[in-house]
Design a protein that fits this description.
By secondary structure, this protein is an all-alpha fold. It contains 3 helices and no strands. The longest helix is centred in the C-terminal third of the chain and has 23 residues.
C-alpha cells in the first residue's frame, strides 16, 4: 500500500522537475530513434533542469548524477560541433 504523498505540488521545483523529466524522456526517445545530435541537446536540457532541482533540494546524490551526466552530454555536443 502506498503511503500518503509528502512532495509539495505546484512549487517552482515541482514545475522544473516535470519539464526536465519531459526533456529527458524526449532525449531518450530521440536516442531510440537515432535522431542525432538532437538527442543530446534534449537530454542535456533535462539534466540541467534536474541539476537545478537537486540544488534546490540540496540532494548530493542527484547533484552528482546530473552534473556528471551533463558533462558527458556536453562533451559529446562539443565533439559533434568540432568534427
Amino acid at each position: 500500500m502506498l503511503k500518503d504523498k509528502i512532495t509539495p505540488t505546484h512549487t517552482l521545483d515541482w514545475y522544473i522537475k516535470w519539464v526536465a523529466t519531459l526533456f529527458v524522456l524526449a532525449g531518450m526517445a530521440a536516442t531510440a530513434q537515432n535522431i542525432y545530435p538532437y538527442n543530446m541537446f534534449l537530454t542535456v536540457i533535462g539534466e540541467v533542469g534536474w541539476f537545478t532541482v537537486a540544488y534546490i533540494w540540496r540532494d548530493r546524490a542527484l547533484l552528482t548524477l546530473t552534473s556528471i551526466a551533463s558533462f558527458i552530454l556536453i562533451s559529446g555536443i562539443i565533439k559533434w560541433a568540432v568534427t
